[in-house]
Every structure is written in C-alpha cells, then in structure tokens.
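Please supply some protein, with fold tokens.
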Amino acid sequence: MKKFPLVSIITPSYNQANYLEATMLSVLNQDYPNIEYIVIDGGSDDGSVDLIRRYEGRIAHWISEKDAGQTDAINKGFNLAKGEILAWINSDDTYEPGAVSAAVTYLAENPELGFVYGDCNYIDASGKVIGKFNARQTDLRKLERGYVHIPQQAFFFRAELWRQVGPLDDSFYFAMDYDLWVRLARKAPFRYFPGRTLANFRLHEDAKTVSADARCWPEMLRVHLRDGGSRFSPIFAKYALRRLMAPLITWNRKKMFKNHR
C-alpha cells in the first residue's frame, strides 16, 4: 500500500442543511493528506446546495439532482471514486479528528483485511455525546445470524473488494450496509479495532434510524434468506424480540431526546 493511498469518502444528502456543514467539515478537517471527498445531493431545497458551494473548492466532486434515494446516491458517489480505500458518512453523522489516518494505518499494517471498523458515539441533534454504539468483533457466520456490531459511520473498506461485490443493492432502504458487509466478509477477513472512536452517529427525531427503524430487520431477514439461511436461525429470534421490545425502544428514544434537548 502506498504511504498515503487515496481515500474516497462519499456523503449522500437530501434536505439535511441543519447537519450537513458539520458532516462536511468533519471530513475536510481530517489530518490525512489524500482524501477525495464527494457529496451527492438529491436535489435539496433547504439551503444544502448553498452550503456545498461554500466548500466546493475543497470538494473533489458534487452533484445536486433528483435520485432514487440514499442507496442510489452512495452508488453514484462510488462510481466517481478513484480511491484505494472507500467509506461513506451520512449527512447527519460526523468523523472524529484523525479517523481517516487511523483507519488507513490499520489497513496498511494488516494487508490481509478487507475492511476495518472502530468505535462510534451516539450524539444528539446538537452534537452532544449521549451514548456509545455497541461495536465489537464479529465474523461472517455471526453476521449472517444477525450479530452485526458494525457502526457504518466508522467503517472503511478496500476499493478492490468493492469492484468485486458492488454496487449496493438499491432495493434496500435500510440494510444496504448490512448486505454489503456480508458480501465483503465472504471475500476477505475484517477486524474491529477497539479503543479508537472514529465517528459519531447522530440520533434525532427525523433520522431514518429513528423514524423508520421497523424496516431494518425485515430487510436483514431478506439478506439472510436470499443467501440460504434458515428460518430457525437466531436472526429470526432476534427480530421477534425486537418487535416485542419496539414500544419500549421507542419510549426510551423519545425520553433520550427529551432529556438531551
């Protein structure tokens, strides 16, 4: 691997002007010297395009046009990307300082790995840390059974693998990242490196993770069954438990938002 391989980072966005600038700055202010930053906007009408133009001298590519949603936007970005290492950061999430350097160094030190991920905070609408993502080591077998533990925001992978398994499946609204992890894990080993927080996962009332969480597990089950999984797998038990606990999870999230306003 080159000393400073090109890292391509994609931000898909649509009407996220409240958070987009913080996301962009968290990429543009990284200390890593070789980042190709690509912003794919879905035709926002909330001032997002003005924000993007403010920083366009530091952005490799940007587009603002109607698209088919988040997955389509990410695929558009990766179609433009020239990097050896790829990642995407959604327009309401942020990187921690030094995240890209840490990920590149780890991949350089472990050339057998296809992707790597670190720790991730939960933050509220104002950027205050309100919790910690339950990240830990998993593997292909566990992934297929629903034991994910990978924060998408803190995930970096090799472009050579993307060329083998991409693009993201745009039939998924929620689980396109899970589907990708399963496909990548079939090609190469991967690793969680603990103790290094790489990113922040913003939870707010309009976030997809909050407003449409019920769509996630059925899509994960679709990946599981598509790839020959059994209906008696633990992933079905986890889904049943999640459905049972859904009212409590919703109540806890609303309480969390209320307590951190």
